[in-house]
Amino acid sequence: MSYPTHRFRSTAVLLVALGLLVSCTRTEDPMTTVPRTWRIPGYKNSVFKDVMVLAVTRDEDVRKALEDAFVADLSSDYTRARASWKLLPEHADLTEDKLEKGVRKARVDSVLLVRLLGVDEDEEYVKPRKYYKREPGKHRYKNYYRSSYEIVKEPGYFKTNMTYRLESNLYQTSDAELVWSSHSKTVNPETVDEGVTSVSQAVAGKLREEGLVR
User: Fold this and answer.
1) What's the total number of domains in the chain?
2) For residue 173, what is the domain's CATH number?
3) Helix (H) or strand (E) holding 39
4) What is the pLDDT of residues 65-95, one digit of tens each?
């Protein structure tokens, strides 16, 4: 797996659509996993205490929702997290110089940049199944015994799974270098709020697990 080694300033121009709005039928709760992480070899600096979250998307509503979700999950007694939309409101016209000035003005020690890598769609066949459904009896015990369990049969069916792959890169502002990166997968979010909450909780959890924030 190859992770980016460029500086965060050069990524500011990659304004791609995040596209977390989902209209297909879903039967499962959104779930995010983080199967891949990377950190700069030999990095042993102290944990970051002041993080700016920057979501790379043309959709301002999605940007705000995603950044606010990360801020909520990263913030603690030890970590201050701030949404970039409050500091850099004109995201569509954001240049490298504007980003640099905004980061300096905010005096943060790190920037977490989140962007969509792609959306995968696949069809899955769910096998038919049967199970026993217990029904409450209302009459005599012999009738209750016979009618307590009903066999329920569900036919097989096809369902469409949507997987949203996101990349989260953590940069230290002292030299603008990439320190940590992750690839996450969110399956079948029904709404933007559910999707971004699932992503932010999973990625923030990984950052804490790996000792980069507290």
Assistant:
1) 1
2) 3.40.50.800
3) strand 31-39
4) 999 999 999 999 999 999 999 988 776 677 8
